[in-house]
Amino acid sequence: MEIVTQNATSLAWIGDGYMTLEIRRHLLSLGYTKADILQKKSAKINSAKGQSKILEVLESEHFFNEDEKQILQRGRNASIHSKAKNADGKTYLRSTSLEALIGYLYLYDHHERLNELMEKIIQEGDKLC
Predict the structure, then answer these.
(1) Pick from 80, 85, 114, 98: which is nearest to 9 by CA?
(2) Per-residue pLDDT tens for 5-17?
(3) Active site residue 16
(4) CA-to-CA distance for 129 and 124, rounded, in angstroms?
């Protein structure tokens, strides 16, 4: 499979799953074991609004290299056929761009960079909780 040919929505779908898993793993390591609390905290970070806020911080810190910025742009240009429950279209596409980047890093086996990104996402996500 040529990963380069994957569209941004497919990358975002993979990135969303990976991000959800890593955030929940982190929250469990902090001692959040009750399902309802774990879900609420995870959803706050992994929501379109939460992801958009995290992306804004990372962009302000100039965290992304040029290749990553191109993937983020692909995510922002994705054709989304569903609507976020609690976010406007722009916020939803910003979150999709972050998810697409995570999916890209995962599929291309850029594990070191993916780990760096997830550490930053979790660090910023902890501030949201």
Answers:
(1) 80
(2) 678 888 999 999 9
(3) yes
(4) 9
Average the pLDDT over 62-74 and give the result: 94
Residue 54 neighbours by CB distance under 10 Å: 25
**Phi, psi at 127, each rounded to 5°:** -70, -25
The pLDDT score that the predictor gives to residue 1 is: 34
**Residue 114 neighbours by CB under 8 Å, 6+ apart:** 102, 105, 106
Longest dimension (CA), the chain: 40
Cα(113)–Cα(68) distance, integer angstroms: 10
SS3 of 47, please? coil
Amino acid letter for position 59? E
Query: Which of 16, 36, 88, 126 is the catalytic position?
Result: 16
